């Protein structure tokens, strides 16, 4: 017993010490933030783009406290686009060097960055790329370069696309947890991970279709840049030629096999410098402060980020309805804000929270233009909240639609019995005990829940009818929980235009009739002081468990494993009526 107590005390002391280090580090960061930067862009500079850390939609997704622990240098998509756009007109920046290996981003984000690089090339400046091993996403982005160089001992992971879905049914059975599921729509596969151990035929069909649409976009972009025929390209991919450097060179997947020092000399030669000359390489982190173009105009365009799953309540991660509505009202009441971009990257979530948010967005639209921009995912509840938009932009590779509703109710009756716990009850009416973790659900509750699902589905359909100006039959034929690619969504009238973040911003400015404006983000970027307070107090004030313990767990598990941890931990949150897509899809 003494040993156990000492272990617990040691763990508590360790967490307190680590917390103190993080807090002190944040304090020092804030002190140094007031020291003016002396960074200057020299003539004949190269912008070096290395995107081996996460690319964030919402700048507030970056957790400075965790970044201190694992040297995470995540950057927002907007910062990347701003830097590339500004470099296009900066005479001191002569070209861009892409150094990519493991790109942690969605294909829609990559498409936006790729388009910005294509625009950069219109300035007649060059883009070179170099890789020491290269995953498929990195190759897709690097293929935009004028010339591609590869380490002679490296390989390129160019394989086509596959999608992996995680299933939890056997986990539930092993520990005696059952899930009562009611759904509307044969494609509403968000519940499949809890009730199956493989893909249904409907889900397999829609995933196959999505992958084919994604690959059409990706492969055609690469083919256009590399000037390879579609037949040859697919042959090279099927044969895995890219895994052998010599074959990658032979079949024109890269332009040259050289070592990194040789690549550096090529850059110097391109700049007209000798091999022993020094040249200035600038990172995105260094350049982004210079690239921030702040207008003197009082006019503002707000970017409202809707990132993550939708929940009720308050929280600083994901989309929590009360917190999100507070931001909507703040934007609505600011007369300097002339238009709003709702940037959505969400698989949906709570039906009630989604409905609350949509109502407030309609109220916002009454006062100022509301333009929606989809990122990688805008499905189910994430699609639902876009219905107030004046115009919806999507990328070809956006996962969207999933118009459908489901209900999921867990019970642990078997688990309780396995560990020797039984329960009994008395009641006054037939459905007084309509649900219990240890008794499950009553038949009456199942029937009324099913009716509620149908009613919520019809409400979803009606909102899409109103927002997209369609008939019931048109929307229903596109619904039933089916997910569409952005390209198919455009063809079916679910979105208005294929375009990126800044296409939406340009349209919003025209709609509002403003020429000069500043972009302001919501949630507002938190200062280091805010992060210190939030890290210590958020467990007490919010529903999202983002306090110090949660941050330390996230640090220990890593970003991807933490997502899986959250998925399992939030099973209880996902009961009731949900507008949720199967977002545990990893497209490789």
TrEMBL record:
- Identify the InterPro entries for this entry: ClpP/crotonase-like_dom_sf (IPR029045), Pept_S49_pIV (IPR004634), Pept_S49_SppA (IPR004635), Peptidase_S49 (IPR002142), S49_SppA_67K_type_N (IPR047217), S49_SppA_C (IPR047272)
User: What's any GO biological process attached to this entry?
Assistant: signal peptide processing
Catalytic residues identified in the record: 188 (proton donor/acceptor), 380 (nucleophile)
Task: Could you list this entry's UniProt keywords, alphabetically sorted.
Answer: Hydrolase, Membrane, Protease, Serine protease, Transmembrane, Transmembrane helix
List cellular component terms (GO). membrane
* Transmembrane stretches, start-end: 12-35
Subcellular localization(s) per the UniProt record: Membrane
What is this protein's record name? Answer: Protease-4
Organism the protein comes from: Apibacter mensalis
